[in-house]
Amino acid sequence: MSANEHHPTRKPLARTAGAIYLIVVLTGVFGLMYVPSRLFVRDDAAATVRNLVEHTDLFRLGIVAGFVGYIAFLLLPLALHRLLGAVSSRAAALMVAFAATSVPISLFNLTHKLDVLSLLGDAAYLRAFSVEQRDAMVMLSLDAYNNGIAVSMLFWGLWLLPFGYLVYKSGFLPRILGVLLMLGCFGYLIELFGDTLFADYAQSVLAGVVTLPATLGEIGICLWLLILGAKNAAIEPSIVDSPKA
Predict the structure, then answer these.
(1) Are the beta carbons of 69 and 24 closer than 8 angstroms?
(2) 9 pairs with which residues across the strands?
(3) Alpha-carbon distance 105 to 91, whole Å?
(4) Where residue 236 falls among pLDDT bands split at 50, 70, 90?
């Protein structure tokens, strides 16, 4: 029998991973960037609530995008493990562990957005609060959601280091994308710890560029996997982690 009858080939695995990655990217851009940019007004509770009331459907779509995106992000490292696990089983295991750890955190964090929907509702118990109090509670829920995103960001960064290493060492994916992914790990960590340690970090020049390698690396590898796939050779068992004879 040929090797291909014993082991899956890379190209279909790569394109499956690329398709899942595309779901992660699109839902992330929509839920984490587009929706907040349309609805949330920094330090203005009244304006934010007014936007949420006027565009509740958009806010709800953002929540659904979160559910879909985080489930896809649970499947993504598993698909990548099948593709890249033969490069280094240890690095592949770390990649899956870091990515998978973020998923329950991110899913639970969506409860803060569901709390916002409750506060925007017409339940009788809400009449006990003034308009200003309800607006403040909406902002508090959104702040809690952003804090949860910060915790998830730790793992969104960490998983890129073993992932980037696997891409770099694979021999069938562009090394430059592996480098960008590994740099992206440190970019996320700098963003997280910078924003935590320094109150004015968001206004710094560094805040505007530090996550750029991660953006380029993730979009780049997503499109490469989806469009070009990988060299269509059979995936062999790992020799990277094998002990020397």
Answers:
(1) yes
(2) 234
(3) 22
(4) low
